[in-house]
């Protein structure tokens, strides 16, 4: 009995047109990663469980897909553990491997394992899928790609400058003009927490601040109060909720606020350096702005924080983000390796390009030239022609069977084929072929011996 | 306490140089897939277990990686099943998803699910990793890529001709001249079994015949006897073990042997058509030959069978293979979809190219131009220069910190950087930069305003 097939929820099949559009984004990102001197690495899809578990918090641990041990996996489980019938206790006894949850932890593991082969500073990029057992919803999948570029082993703020240029280069190349690159610094956030006397509550403070867009100023204040941040502290921080003016003015307001925080002033200085350099170098199409409400969920950032929003008018969350972290590899025993990196959100960029109709039309062309099939002898002559075209890098194809010509034309239309070649018995005798331009219906005859004229006309 | 990190056995990290070499192969294959009119699809890394289980035999079922259900997976297991503590009975209760084992079954599932969107004949290619819980050994991994191209919904033998041309085009482009494309036909094998009176033992016959290279003629005969094929039958088939002459002579010997087998003669006719067409079209560097011992392990092939061996002198099994199957999608309820496809063995091709030193040297160049870093002011001028280079598609980079110049030169050497730019305080004043050719040590000074001259010289 045949099954009605389906795929697991939260996963996707990609059709040829979708693969082409996704590859267009991947290839553009990859090209600029390379031009900026980043080198590719790849890591296995699954890691040993102990490499991943405990690195993403309790919630993360729950969302990691575990792979069942092969063979008679229960034979190694002691009866005591087994008899409790407890999923959490049984899991580590029957699974040793888990699917990659992000690219950062495997990268840290890679750097530590290969530290003797790596010549630091190491600029690496990695474009691979990750898996999360999240509840699937619109725009959130259980399998999705991450596109990361990081520099490890270099403390210079020039890295931050380059990463801003890299965002600008990629989005300009994708013709997605006017993205907003938002900049902040964890030291500034820490300074703010220090000044307002809620140092130990920094994480709560930033997590609440991060929700400003979603729940508004009142909502943020309410959450801060609930977390135990005093009214007085919140009042001190209030100016942050409505900073205005250009980046210079904003920085000087903040400098005044943070005048007694060494860490805060260090953060301001870093921001000033980065903004000054970027202004001198110029950006092609992106806009750089400060955003002191930018905190990002992850707690491992220690310096600069980046986030990229799509151009005005497009309703979509961030399409990229990143930052500097002082200790990437400490969890695996290699101390003092500083890094800074950015990430591109493939699925969201895809949706934005689709909404703005920015995918090149050529992505829908899988075959440039289709030869119709008039029978065996004609097909042989056509295949010779097609070989020549293919050797010139032209996507050419022969309709595979001697079907009705009308059906063959329909096939060409469905595939957006721009040129159809007719080589029937008449042309065979005349050593010629007819090219039909499918856009305007024009027909032109070429001699087989001067196929180069046709190639040149493409 | 920091862990000493490792990766699961049978999996691999790929360094930048390895990724570049692998991508060189992938990109070459992909380019020709596209030029031959194949369209890309991608399917999820994991499928519902019922999509995969039972499709690869008992051994296959064992080698499929299963993913543990998320959350409290034991809550759905009845106490009766649980109390037996039996791995095989528990598995289907606690796993619903499994990692892709090959690309063929997911492709069949894809075709059935998307049959209304697909305009047949459908030429698809797919390059994605697969996972098998096989015992790892030299050249056999638990995670590896498959590169498949298939045409479904077309019965014409022209497909076979094109697939041979495709093999030729890819291996020629990889400069791997002289590969052997071996050709056989399951109908011929079936005809042989018919003639020798061991029709119901065809699978055993072909599996034994497939081992001719490994265990020799005597070994094959012994295995056939053990499987219940009579001495008389084996004697009739014996000429097959040592067929010689050109393809024409071989075909006529076989034609005589199979004169009473309708199916066998049909197979011969198909082979003749393919060989005749390929001879008329010509191959660039590959050699096509018949191999009646070629059976391939898989049982779903029904017509043509392909296998590609590396050039003489390279000790390595097949680097590609494929064939025609009459019923790809029947398992999922869609009858009578014929297909033919080929596959490229990435890991083995990699090893062959490495052994023959055929990887282009440029793959080792991650940075074409490195600017040394003489301090903040010089770095800013260098970054402007670098932006111009990058905008021209040149892989350019700035050494990230103001380290000792000797250290910076060492970094350039380790990375095979061909050109180093020096822009120190002297050059800054003169609005110039010095280019050092790292191969011969030559230095040349350019004005910053005429950077195009330098770009043109690259």
Automatic annotation (TrEMBL), chains A, B:
Gene3D superfamilies in the record: Anticodon-binding domain (3.40.50.800), Bira Bifunctional Protein, Domain 2 (3.30.930.10)
GO molecular function (one): histidine-tRNA ligase activity
Enzyme class: ligase
UniProt family annotation: Belongs to the class-II aminoacyl-tRNA synthetase family.
Binding positions (L-histidine): 102-104, 132, 146, 150, 296, 300-301
Keyword presence, Cell division: no
GO terms under biological process: histidyl-tRNA aminoacylation
Name of the protein described by the UniProt record: Histidine--tRNA ligase
Alphabetically ordered keywords of this record: Aminoacyl-tRNA synthetase, ATP-binding, Cytoplasm, Ligase, Nucleotide-binding, Protein biosynthesis
Complex and partners: Homodimer.
Principal subcellular localization: cytoplasm
EC number: 6.1.1.21
Subcellular location: Cytoplasm
């Amino acid at each position: 009995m045949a099954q009605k097939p389906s795929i697991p929820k939260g996963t996707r099949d990609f059709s040829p047109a979708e693969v082409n559009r996704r590859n267009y984004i991947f290839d553009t990102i990859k090209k600029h990663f390379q031009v900026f001197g980043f080198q590719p690495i790849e890591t296995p899809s699954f890691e040993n469980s102990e490499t991943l578990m405990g690195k993403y918090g309790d919630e993360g641990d729950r969302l990691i897909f575990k792979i069942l041990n092969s063979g008679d996996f229960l034979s190694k489980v002691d009866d005591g553990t087994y008899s409790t019938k407890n999923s959490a206790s049984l899991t580590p006894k029957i699974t040793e491997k888990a699917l990659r949850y992000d690219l950062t932890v495997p990268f840290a593991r890679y750097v530590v394992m290969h530290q003797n082969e790596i010549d630091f500073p190491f600029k690496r990029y990695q474009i691979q899928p990750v898996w999360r057992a999240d509840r699937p919803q619109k725009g959130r999948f259980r399998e999705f790609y991450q596109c990361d570029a990081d520099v490890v082993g270099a403390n210079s703020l020039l890295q931050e400058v380059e990463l801003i240029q890299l965002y600008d280069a990629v989005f300009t190349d994708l013709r997605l003009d006017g993205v907003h690159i938002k900049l902040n610094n964890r030291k500034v956030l820490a300074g703010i927490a220090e000044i307002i006397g809620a140092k130990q509550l920094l994480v709560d403070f930033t997590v609440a601040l991060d929700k400003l867009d979603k729940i508004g100023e009142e909502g943020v204040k309410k959450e801060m109060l609930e977390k135990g941040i005093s009214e007085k502290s919140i009042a001190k921080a209030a100016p942050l909720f409505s900073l205005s003016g250009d980046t210079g003015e904003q920085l000087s307001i903040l400098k005044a606020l943070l005048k007694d925080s060494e860490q805060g002033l260090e953060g301001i200085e870093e921001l000033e350096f980065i903004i000054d350099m970027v202004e001198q170098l110029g950006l092609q199409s992106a806009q750089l702005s400060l955003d002191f409400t930018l905190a990002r969920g992850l707690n491992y950032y220690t310096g600069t924080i980046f986030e990229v929003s799509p151009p005005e008018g497009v309703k979509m969350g961030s399409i990229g983000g990143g930052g500097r972290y002082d200790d990437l590899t400490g969890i695996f025993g290699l101390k003092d390796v500083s890094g800074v990196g950015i990430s591109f959100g493939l699925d969201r960029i895809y949706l934005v390009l689709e909404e703005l109709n920015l995918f090149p039309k050529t992505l829908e062309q899988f075959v440039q030239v289709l030869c119709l099939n008039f029978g065996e002898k004609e097909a042989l002559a056509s295949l010779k022609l097609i070989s020549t075209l293919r050797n010139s890098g032209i996507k050419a194809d022969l309709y595979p069977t001697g079907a009705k010509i009308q059906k063959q034309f329909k096939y060409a239309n469905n595939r957006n084929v721009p040129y159809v070649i007719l080589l029937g018995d008449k042309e065979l005798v005349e050593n010629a072929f007819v090219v039909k331009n499918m856009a305007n219906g024009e027909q032109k005859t070429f001699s087989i011996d001067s196929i180069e004229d046709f190639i040149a006309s493409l």
